[in-house]
């Protein structure tokens, strides 16, 4: 079974994707890490504004090299949303994601365009969201815990800017697929959100 999970930044989709993958014994791909890794390589080269450099980085990306610890910074979240708006970068990462989803037994993928572009035929699709202030508070605490020197206001501003860029781009914008189930986690803790997500997936399996 393929489970496709989309939603805006810090909505909790990665947390739910990991929990669902563990529950069903499926492999999980956090597709945001792909775009973060492309941005990391471009930033290291001083070429984030260079479209050709970002396409080249995407074409030569190795999933085995993705290190969540180094990639989940605020700077790379912003850089990822810049390179993710480029059609050539998205095209270069398409096959890799579809191959991951096509593994025997299925997979769980989370991102922005999984239910709409990468796996439009997935039987179980969730669109996870939460109010911006709630998302910012969660991400702020997470980044503080990781030792980043950042303010709540800066995190909220980053989230709003990324939401706008991700939803407004012409190539694979962040959208709820028509057949995705909406899950608002604003007033749900992690366990309650997981229970709701599991019930939605079970309903689709049945
Ligand atoms: N329902 C919840 N209640 C409280 N905290 C949550 C909940 N879901 C996730 N979190 C916390 O919020 C933060 C963001 O969650 P997560 O990384 O799953 O979001 P995301 O949507 O995958 O973000 P991104 O797209 O930016 O990678 C994490 O610190 C996570 O532990
Ligand atoms: N399927 C996806 C996944 C991510 N992006 C872009 O990457 C940025 C970082 O993603 P996180 O999930 O790690 O926060 C995100 O803001 C998107 O711009 C994407 O376009 N498609």
UniProtKB/TrEMBL annotation:
Main location group: cytoplasm
Q: What are its GO cellular component terms?
A: cytoplasm
Q: Name one GO molecular function term.
A: dCMP kinase activity
EC number assigned by the record = 2.7.4.25
Q: Which reaction does it catalyse?
A: dCMP + ATP = dCDP + ADP; CMP + ATP = CDP + ADP
Positions contributing to ATP binding: 7-15
Q: Which domain of life is it from?
A: Bacteria
Concerning its family, UniProt says: Belongs to the cytidylate kinase family. Type 1 subfamily.
Name by which UniProt lists this protein: Cytidylate kinase
* Protein encoded by which gene: cmk
């Amino acid at each position: 079974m393929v489970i496709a999970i989309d939603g805006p930044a810090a909505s909790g989709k990665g947390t739910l994707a990991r929990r669902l993958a563990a529950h069903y014994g499926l492999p999980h791909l956090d597709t945001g890490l792909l775009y973060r890794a492309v941005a990391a390589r471009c930033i290291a080269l001083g070429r984030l504004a260079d479209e050709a450099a970002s396409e080249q980085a995407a074409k030569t990306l190795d999933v085995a090299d993705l290190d969540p610890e180094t990639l989940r910074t605020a700077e790379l979240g912003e850089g990822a949303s810049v390179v993710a708006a480029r059609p050539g970068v998205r095209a270069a990462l398409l096959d890799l994601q579809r191959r991951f989803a096509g593994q025997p037994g299925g997979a769980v993928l989370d991102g922005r365009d999984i239910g709409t572009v990468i796996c439009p035929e997935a039987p179980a699709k969730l669109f996870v969201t939460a109010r911006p202030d709630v998302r910012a508070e969660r991400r702020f605490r997470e980044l503080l815990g990781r030792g980043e020197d950042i303010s709540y206001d800066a995190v909220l501003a980053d989230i709003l800017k990324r939401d706008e860029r991700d939803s407004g781009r012409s190539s694979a914008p962040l959208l709820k697929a028509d057949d995705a189930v909406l899950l608002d986690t604003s007033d749900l803790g992690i366990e309650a959100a997981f229970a709701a997500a599991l019930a939605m997936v079970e309903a689709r399996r049945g």
